[in-house]
Amino acid sequence: MGSPFREPVLAPPRGFRDILPTEARELRAIERALSETFASHGYVPIEPPMVEHVTPDSGPERHRSMQFLDRDGSLVALRPDITTAVARLVAQRYRDAAGALRLSYFAPVFREEPAMLGAERQHDQAGVELVGPSGPLADAEVLALLAESLARCGLRDATIEIGHVGLVRRAFAELSDDDSAPVMEALRAGDHVGAFHRAANAGMREDGLARARRALAARGPDIESVDIEGIEELREVIHLGRDLFAGEPLWGIPNLSLVPELPYYTGVVFEALHPKSGFPIATGGRYDLLLGAFGTPRRATGFAINVPRLHLALFESGWRPERERTLVALSPAGTRETAQLAASLRARGLVVAIGAVAERAGLEIIESTVVDRDRVRLADGRVMTAEDLARELT
Amino acid sequence: MTPLRFALAQGVLLADALTALRTVGLDVSRLGEDRRLLVPSGDIEYVLARPSDIATYVERGAADLGIVGKDVLMESAARVLELVDLRFGACRFVVAAPRDALERSLDEYRHLGSLEVATKYPRVAEEHFRRRGIQVEIVKVAGSAELAPQVGLADWIVDLVATGATLAANDLAVVEEIATSTARLIANPSAYQLRREEIAPLAERLASWAAGR
Question: Exposed site from A8, A19, A240, B27, fewest CB < 10 Å?
């Protein structure tokens, strides 16, 4: 017979994990930097619920969402992204709003991931949505905000690659809509071989294929040699973006090979890349079709930063959060003296913990012992008053 | 600058891949010298891995480039960029059934409503039959799917064939072709952007080498 007590399961379910204090402190520093940057551009925070209904309009990430049945039998899902929730929310609450809606968020999202790939099923996403305005200035606003957000977090060496799904579609304009759909589908899947194969099979002429091939291969200055109608719009957006946030060094690389996996993008699209990350740190673009799916056709653009990837890139490039205040660990003597001394130190702006500290979370710490209600003894033997200690540490 | 990391599939594609790389001017002489799996060679660092792992390496950015069969990509569903059709290593995904039993298995389908399909490639098989609207039960095997119909494990198989000789030797006939496959040059999407100056010329040389074959 086995033990009547089952062995407790200590690890969280696959793809979920605990974020311990050292990491949590760094994530909060990133969150502060991002939230302040978003706010400084007039974006206001929203907090949609964790759970949303699953409907045919639930967005392209539906097949990857973690779904379950509600008690009334309706199918619900942990939100796989925030953009879809924002689209729903705008349709419900801001149906008749005039002008620009500037929304920001920093929140966890949930995605079903195949087992055994080390993928997490929950991660934080930070981003903005600009609903209403269209045109180069609106596109540039969101791009520049991404560049500034990454810079304000302290990320160097990131590039922002900027493409345009509409221009790519135009490169295959000589095909009928029926023929160009599978071509775009292959490009969204990253299959350039398949895309050109399908275009050729559909009867696209060799000079058209060569022009499309050149367009897709153009990155940076090569973009000047691309002859697709409307290419100057991409250049204009990048110039405007740099006017809004110059940055150092110059950010923003035109790149028509960028065709995101999600089909709802319609215009300018972009990705932030970093040499230390095999995946994009942030993705975004214009998605004018998504809100229409919720019955409120509105122009919209935005981006989402994958916070763990940003954190990883920052960490790998040597970033550490700014030093916070030193923690004074107070070994108690008499209980009343200890309580009074702790209150007096805190009143002088110090961070105080009573007793031994088990988790320092990377904070600097000063060990001290209570002498009386006004004095501590430090590890090096010095005895100081609360006032002197406060002066030394602040 | 860290060297460009290039993952090559060990096995049937390796000889052709090395020929291709050698022809476009890369030094691959140190590959296969000993049993090392990570082989630095100037600006490029080669990784030798199992075909099914190449897609994972490249998707996750552990390698920047790779040469791997389209068959492997279809089964893995990894998100990588397929840049060049290298046109070697041709093979086909097929559905095959015992030569004399096609009619019997269709009859069984009418009566029992489902067919059992043995395969090493469950994703490709499942996707194919879903598209066709045929109800099947996939039996995943680790090798020798040809054996399955003979021992009663499954009615049909989905397998990768180059010449069809193994099918014939096991009294199987092709019911239909699912897809053809050749070797592809693949890239990690981020690496393709960040290291375009190195990758693009290489991809171009390989494309014209493949076109000239």
Answer: A8
